Amino acid sequence: MNKKKIPMRKCVVTGEKKPKKELIRIVRGSESEVSVDLTGKKNGRGAYLHLSPDVIETAKKKNTLKRHLEAEIPETIYDELMELANKQVNR
Question: What is the pLDDT of residues 49-63, one digit of tens each?
């Protein structure tokens, strides 16, 4: 039997390659609006992050998402990411 290929993506903060399902995608759509893409299928330029509070804090401090997506990142995006990361930690 053929093994199913697992899509890998790279975290823009840590540089680690991980399976796509382990990372969260932040996307800049048309009109430069930025949103968290839980499905991983929205149209637009995407950047992947490991969903841990430390990585999110680093991305915020170093403006990593702003550089990768070439758009202003609203504070609400970081709040939403932190909320998702804390839910994942508490599982």
Answer: 999 999 999 999 999
Q: Which structural domain, as residue segments, surrounds residue 65?
A: 8-89
**What pairs with residue 10 in β-bridges?**
17
Task: Report pTM.
Answer: 0.89
Q: What does the pLDDT read at residue 91?
A: 67
- The domain total for the chain is 1
Instruction: List, in order, residues 6 or more apart from 65 with CB less than 8 Å away.
Output: 12, 26, 34, 47, 49, 59, 73, 77
CATH number of the domain at 21, please: 3.30.1230.10
